[in-house]
Design brief:
- The complex is a heterodimer of chains A (422) and B (102).
- Helices cover 75% and strands 0% of the residues of chain A.
- With 422 residues, chain A is mainly α.
- Chain A starts with 11 loop residues before the first helix and ends in a 14-residue tail after the last helix.
- Chain B has 102 residues and is an alpha+beta fold.
- Chain B has a single domain, classed as GMP Synthetase, Chain A, domain 3 (2-Layer Sandwich).
- Helices cover 27% and strands 18% of the residues of chain B.
- In chain B, helix 2 links the parallel strand 2 and strand 3.
- The chains are: A mainly alpha (422), B alpha+beta (102).
- The interface between A and B is medium-sized, with 36 and 31 residues.
Amino acid sequence: MFNISRDFAPPIKMIEPFFVIGSIFYALGVLFLLFLDPASGHVDLVTVGWAHWFLLGFVMMIIFGAMAQLIPVVVEVGHFSVDLYYIIWPSLLVGTLTMVAGFWWIPDVLAYGGLLVLVAMVTFLFETFLTLKKAERITLSVKSVMWANIFLTVAIVIGFLMALAIGEGVVLDVAKWLGAHAVLVLGGFVTLTIMGLSLILLPMFGLSHGFDETPITRAYQLMVGAVIAYVVGTLIDWNWVRWLSLAVAFVSVGFYGYQIWIIYQTRARKAHDIYAKTMYVGYGSLAVALILGIVTLFVSSEQVILAAAWFLILGFFSYLINGHLYKIVPFLVWFERYSPLVGKQKVPMLNDMLPERRAEWQFWFTSAGLVVGGIGLLFGSSSLFHGGVTLMVVGAGFMLSSVLSMLSYGKELNISRTENNV
Amino acid sequence: MCNVTKEQVLDSISTVIDPEVGFNMVELGLIYGVDIDDDCNAKVTMTLSTRACPMHQMLEQWVREAAERTEGINEATVEVVWEPAWNVTMAADNVKQALGAM
């Protein structure tokens, strides 16, 4: 038997900056898309700068903040030292801003930004590995998180070397290693982390039970193999190995999608609330990104690559993160401010803490923008792309406002965890 | 001999609500049993809807405190078990209906 002690759960003041900063980066990241030319390729430094803004400032920032809460849930033990998270967000914030400045304006500062990001990630990895070491039950989720962090380690070393190559003239074939860096981060870290966490979170929120886990086991094995093979293929410069690795990664995503379908079919909670709807669009985007990704194996088209990346990053990653913010943020706030009052006075349910109308507006504006912008990228229409982005900017404003509203819910209670320990 | 009934203890425990789903622990079918000994000590056997529930310790504590609030109960202990694993068929009809599971 295991207990998630109150001591295992991080205080909200530790996690709040991750979610606030992440949401601001999301909103500004979508806004910056208005100034991006869809005709510029995925290796253009402006596009690369935007990708780092969005992936480091939004995706990584929120994942790290969520991991402070979720690692004990996944691993079933307490953190090695949760206080290390106080180092992570400032280093990641300043590092990301410096890196983006390096990509967009001053290449010389790129390495310094990379170094700060390295500090944030090494701190996260150090804390996570020492926490994983305490795990008694090695579940598939634990293994996924472990491999995800191994891949992140390799990704940041390669990324830092690339930053040195661009900013300081270190000899490294950046174009060659960019693919390995992207596969390690997007496939190795983000996708494996999502696979591991969704095996716990989706059944928890949907009340799914007794489902077969074979598909996700295959998905995990294939993704680990694919990422390793891609890096080896880059190292020995064999293109066919890299091509095959990508094909295997796509098969892995197919198995993962099938697992999600099984979990969806066995869920007891059938409400189509904001969380469920966000998951539908997120996984729908993954399916579109997968199809476009398979097309890129056979057709060399920059438009298809950008559209696949659009549905993967702005669709799948963003929807999964934003959808879970509607679950995780109310829980953290409730846990901090209301759990000490249970049995003493009436407390709200987690659902009561959602700004429902704003969340609905966020969902519909963002979804419309996602589809229109994606079509614009696919068919090379700048007008459609920017029209879609404009809709997403409005949605992002509602998202930021929703997160701030959830974080401030019940703030006037001013309850101290130590004074009111349950 | 103790005169407190199992139903009285369950009534007390039914004040404990899971804030995520909005139903109480008894109607969710998460309370597997209540045993009361001659000295009016209660032992509650319960489960959770998921093994990785982040509110595990709090729910366990709230159930114990609720059981102890039952008039006549001296002390309550709670054991969390994972077998049989919970599923929605164990919940009351009103819960199943509200969740859309029937």
